[in-house]
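Q: Could you fold this chain for me?
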Amino acid sequence: MEYIVESSLERFEAWSGGKDTLDVLKEKDDCDAVESILEEYFSCGEDKPTETEINDLLWFERDWIAEQLGYRNWEAYEDGWSESDLEEAEDWFEGLDLDEMEEVSGLDRDGYRDPEAMLDEEAFIDAVQEWWDGLSDKRKVEVYYEHN
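A: Sure. Below is the predicted structure, expressed as structure tokens.
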């Protein structure tokens, strides 16, 4: 026997990882937005999606869902920062002067002096850039917000 149930995503009885995803969507009050995304996604096929297909999409396509909501990935969505936050952090970092670089990175600028006590600015800037590049996207956004 086959039957179709029409219900909201918020009332969908997901399981395992799909339930975890749905719980976050409910907490962030994004079920309606994701429901619209899923309706469009599943409208491409002739068949209606099964419960398993819906659950699998919730479970295994979290990054895709987050991207559809305007976030870089699922981690960014859960943490509440967007691609524009990361871009803003990157722009901010590029505009730092030497004093700010030292403060933000925690690197000691005096450690980049040559034997004649001259500051090797390039070596210091390279070290700070390497430090920044080694941070996760999430941490870059956190550092930006910590200093602004």
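A (continued): The chain has two domains: 9-79, 83-146.
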